Amino acid sequence: MSYIEIRNIFKIFGPNPKSALELAKAGSDKDEILAATGHTVGLHDVSLSIEQGETFVVMGLSGSGKSTLIRHLNRLIDPTSGEISFGGEDILAMDIPTLNAFRRKRLGMVFQRFGLLPHRNVMDNVAYGLEIQGQPRKIREAAAAKWIERVGLAGYEAKFPDQLSGGMQQRVGLARALATDPEVLLMDEAFSALDPLIRSDMQDELMKLQTELHKTIVFITHDLDEALKLGDRIAILKDGKLIQVGRPEEIVLHPADDYVKAFTRDVNRGRVLRARSVMQPISDQAPTEQMTENKINHDTPLDEIIPYFLGSTEAQPFAVVDRDGGIVGTIGRDNLLDVLNR
Ligand SMILES: Nc1ncnc2c1ncn2[C@@H]1O[C@H](COP(=O)(O)OP(=O)(O)O)[C@@H](O)[C@H]1O
Ligand SMILES: [Mg+2]
Fold first, then answer.
1. What is the pLDDT of residue 185?
2. What is the pLDDT of residues 102-147, one digit of tens each?
3. 17 in ligand 1 pocket by Cβ < 6 Å?
4. What is the DSSP string of 196-261?
5. Are 86 and 3 a contacting pair, CB within 8 Å?
6. Which of 9, 40, 76, 222 maximizes ligand 1 atoms within 8 Å of its Cβ, making it the mutation to test the pocket?
7. How many Cβ atoms sit within 10 Å of the Cβ of residue 213?
8. CA nearest 33: which of 18, 52, 48, 53?
């Protein structure tokens, strides 16, 4: 079983959700249910398994149900029907004190509008979660100082939020979420309000932190480039329904329908696709002498491989090796052209 299990969640907004639920379960879609009952379908039979330590991205157009989904994970809202568990524990069965402890100790949240407390300085904002937990001042300030340093804000401890740029404020938001050492980070469009360059810096920062922390991160975005960059796996929502779940290269190479295809059309394939997703597996063929001289790691982006083949039509194929150095496949000029043209 995965760490977070979401089973057959329906969420219907409106005064009499049960009546609309029957329609949804019988197969009516969001538009039909709105027309027939005036109820809005937030989520329609969504099931997902999220692994411990993965960065799981939820993507979709505005109104597709992304925020509704993440609000179920901290139980800001309850499903009309369905089940949700964390580490085998049914979070929908938690009573109020258990739920409050669950939110305080096991979840960290980063919001689009930063959500900082304006009358507290950086130190006190970052230490806030530990203060709520009742930790003594010395301990919480030591932890906060550590996280302020980790996100690159050492020296800014005494500044107030309105003295910081948007990017710096979101670094404070990230430090605050991490200071309580939560199991799960929930990030709803956390970088969407930032300028493109700052946004890219924050993505890099999050990825750097994640290689050390291995948190379970549920990250919401409407931006496919961001999803492809950050996600170990990506779930795509449309009108409350789950359309596709997969690794970035699966989404790009095999979009499930026209909705996903429309997102992926303008993607830079050379940056997203990796050697392993276009190689010819070794089981299909025997490596030659020349191939084994040129080795590349299976995670190498195609952008780094293409120039080699552009330089010469005689360029020999690469052997692709996995993390342990074993040869798992080969890549030649033809494999690359095939995928880039497709
Ligand atoms: N509290 C609410 N009351 C009524 N409808 C809501 C509520 N929250 C969300 N919705 C509706 O549910 C759908 C999904 O919304 P949301 O999860 O906010 O989408 P996203 O985050 O992908 O933009 C939308 O049609 C939205 O209007
Ligand atoms: Mg939203």
1. 97
2. 999 999 999 888 789 999 999 999 999 999 989 999 999 999 999 9
3. no
4. HHHHHHHHHHHHHHHHHH--EEEEEES-HHHHHHH-SEEEEEETTEEEEEE-HHHHHHS-SSHHHH
5. yes
6. 40
7. 14
8. 18
Given a cut of 90, whether residue 151 has pLDDT beyond it is yes
Q: Is the CB of 62 under 6 A from ligand 1?
A: yes
Give tens-digit pLDDT for 275-319.
888 888 887 666 555 556 788 999 898 889 888 888 777 888 889
User: Domains in the chain and their CATH numbers?
Assistant: 52-79+95-269 (3.40.50.300), 272-341 (3.90.1280.20)
d(CA 172, CA 118): 12
Going by DSSP bridges, is the β-strand pair 233-238/241-246 parallel, antiparallel, or unpaired? antiparallel
CA dist 7 to 128, 276, 325, Å?
Answer: 33, 31, 39
